[in-house]
Amino acid sequence: MVDVGEVASAVLPYLSGVAGAYGSAVVQRVSNGAADATADATLGAGRQFPRRLFGSSRASQVQSAVVDLAGQPDDEGLADVLRAQVRAALAADASLLADVVPLLGAVGGNFTVTVSGSQGVQVGDGNTQTNTFNAPPR
Fold it and tell me: Which top-level group of life is the source organism from (predicted)?
């Protein structure tokens, strides 16, 4: 039996990444399929989660929580609200849960994705990424 809470927690980093990449226009960009090359490269297959969730019976609640998180990406309380909305959507719709679980495996469910300050996300085997932001002058 699949634990809905665990699935919601596993999906959250992807939703956070989408919110960080697209900002407050996240719902329109995901729903309309609009994208840009940078966001596509950053998010890759993870964009499938919001597309599927935004088509669920609880789409408005999930969308609202994603937009709120996009406005304040480091707010843990808003991340918890989004996790709760995703959990509720998955619990209310068995077909949604059945669709989302295989997506986790397809995007590499064995990876941990952490988004902090909307600086970017990289997921995959053997990848190395070094970002320096606001580095002091030498």
Answer: Bacteria
